[in-house]
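Methods — Computational structure assignment.
A single polypeptide chain was analysed. Its primary sequence is given first, followed by the predicted tertiary structure written as structure tokens.
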Amino acid sequence: MKPLLKVMMVLALAFASTFLLLTLTGVLTLEKIQGWLEAARSVNPWLLAALVVALLFSDIVIAVPTLSVMMLSGYFLGALTGTLASFTGLLLAGSAGYWASKRYGNILLFRLVQEPQQRSEAINTFQRHGPVVILLSRALPMLPEVSACLAGLTGMKFLRFLGLWIISILPYSALANYSGSVSSLQNPMPAIYTAIGLCGFFWGSWFLFHRAKSRERRLQTQDLG
């Protein structure tokens, strides 16, 4: 487990560093993103949708605040169009992370985990737990990007990854955009309740998964004893 966690931490720090750099320098803030979306809407709705796709696609590199972007997408574009734009952006981001890591991930893996046995352990660990990590990755910032990269790096079949990724992003996009579409500056509560509900769902799911795995390990230890 430790070799895999080491790779995950390095990937997460890489994504976090780009986000912090752009945020601290003022290049990327939620206020600026909202301003860009408002400006795009005043020009053309299709430009607005393309900007949402581009912002969410760039999340694979610069860790964009995806939930906020999707809620703004629903607010400006409406629930259906916003969901389609958000889903497209996240689908492209996940696919790009998968294929880039499949092509170049071995370089990182060989640098971070030099022992062949530990590399095999890291790959086998993600192959066992990767599906759950992908499905529940929205519980933490940067974890979706990390899980997409690990799927490519560890050789998960693309169609399997794609299916899991779609299951994780489609309802997430739909809920976020719907809550944004029924929210306003005067009544932001639907978006706030949705954000709290999504966080609670994913954290609760992680808790139940961790509890089940801990129980499984205890039973295995008892059997060995």
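Note: Residues 2-224 form one domain.
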